[in-house]
Amino acid sequence: MNNLRKRMISLLLRAPGSPYVPCPHFFPLFYPHRLLSAIKCVATKPFAVEDYLVATCGLTQAQALKASKHVSHLKDPSKADAVVAFLSNLGLSSAEITDVVTRDPKVLCSDVERSLTARVAELTDLGFSRPEIVRLLIVGMNHFRHSSLRLNLEFWISVFGSLDELIRALRINAALLSTRIEEVCKPNLELLQECGINVSDISNSFMSRVLTRDPKSLQEALARLHEFRIQPGSQPFFRGLYTFAILGSGKITKSIQLFEKLGWSKDHIVSAVKRDPTILGFTEERVRRNMEFLIRVVGLEVPYIARRPALINYSIDRRLLPRNCLINFLRAKGLFNDEASFLSVAAIGDEKFRRRYVHPYEEDFPGLAAAFASSCAGEHQWERLYKMTGENKES
Fold first, then answer.
1. How many Å is the maximal CA-CA distance in the chain?
2. What is the 8-class DSSP label of residue 263?
3. Using the 8-state DSSP alphabet, how is residue 241 labeled?
4. Are the beta carbons of 263 and 302 closer than 8 angstroms?
5. Which Gene3D superfamilies match (predicted)?
6. Which of 58, 200, 304, 356 could disulfide-pair with 98, CB 3.0 to 4.6 Å?
7. Residue 238: which residues within 8 A CB-CB, separation 6 or more?
């Protein structure tokens, strides 16, 4: 044993081509049992999920931090390595694998044989080519691994008429690949068709999300539409059906109560919702803030806003405030005598607004265009502009 110890020390401390010089104070570091312990420590270094996501899957550090929360139970890379190898062999590029893992980190926990390979085999039996399978995997994400994939695919292709049309719907609602057909999808599809909504109206719109909702939610949404006297087949009807079905009856009731607290009568609410049902889907903060701005700053009244609910939909910081400041500035200069309503000022497109209210005055006020652009970007420079032109800003 002593000879072995001396031999190991000699090999470890002797540099090639140089004479052996004993260093007694180093000897304790290289007792055989300590050397073996050090090797074991290195070999059993804990698996770092974040490092793996960055080094192997190509995620950024920020993406890896977010994704790691979903796969924190992975204790070694074996299962994840098998998944990455499977995706690569299937034909996904490195960028596509990164995209898949970023949006669905749990794919790394898949059982390759029982889940991924089985699904690919099913699709191959159905006649799907390898590129088509890759498209479905990328757009379907975690729903691709569901055991009902084959059944759902057969049903939805028969409904939409082609894989391309189905892919369009899946980009909006991939849950179509895993939601129960008989209990959920078929009843919802029948309800929509009874309302005059065709398949062509569903595949390329957010209406596809309604198909996987609880049928009870869809029935309640239809009842709400009738309550607000919204005509079937109209654009508000489509928007309202989607909004009410997705949010649910409880959220819609709370939104109605919020408008009542803000001084809206039932007639005002009905008038607004008939024009734009999506206002009932806005957050309380957005509704309160926009109402306060429109009433206190712009000087509008509830009846005016109720007839023009789009005003609640516009961003204050990037649209309403910059345009209101600009119009006030032009009025202060005696350059704006247009009797246009505030809605027309707010609703006009960006380019057209600049051509009408900014470009004609750039020569007289060189800072005007820059101030307006910075204001739309959230950087308010109206005080500087007013000082440049020698007048105080009107509140």
1. 104
2. T
3. H
4. yes
5. Transcription termination factor 3, mitochondrial (1.25.70.10)
6. 58
7. 197, 201, 205, 207
**What does R_g of the chain's alpha carbons equal in angstroms?**
32
Would you say 295 and 267 are in contact if contact means Cβ atoms under 8 Å apart? Answer: no
Query: Which residue in 312, 243, 249 sits closest to 278, CA to CA?
Result: 243
pLDDT value at residue 332:
83
> Which amino acid is present at 322?
P
Distance separating alpha carbons of residues 383 and 385, to the nearest angstrom: 5
Which residue type, as a one-letter code, is found at position 103?
A: R
User: What type of residue sits at position 296?
Assistant: R
In this prediction, residue 47 carries a pLDDT of: 81
Domain layout of the chain by residue ranges: 2-43, 316-388
> How far is the C-alpha of 299 from the C-alpha of 363, rounded, in Å?
31
Contact 79, 108 (CB under 8 A): yes
3-state secondary structure at position 206? helix
Whole-number pLDDT of residue 267: 95
Written as one letter, the residue type at 339 is E
Asked whether 262 and 288 are in contact (CB, 8 A), the reply is: yes
For residue 334, the 8-state DSSP code is: T
By the 10 Å C-beta count (0-12 exposed, 13-18 middle, 19+ buried), 1 is classed as exposed
Length of the chain as a residue count: 395
Give the residue carrying structure tokens 């749990």: 106
- What's the predicted TM-score (pTM) here? 0.71
210, HSE (Cβ side, Cα atoms, 13 Å): 31
pLDDT number for residue 41: 45
Q: Which two tokens stand for residue 149?
A: 């994939």
Tokens 């089985």 sit on residue:
118
CA atoms within 13 A on the CB side of 220: 16
Rounded average pLDDT per 10-residue block, the chain, 395 residues? 43 43 40 42 67 92 92 90 94 93 92 92 93 92 90 94 92 94 95 84 81 93 92 88 92 95 95 94 93 92 93 89 86 73 86 88 81 71 48 40
Sequence-distant (6+) residues with CB within 8 A of 27 are 9
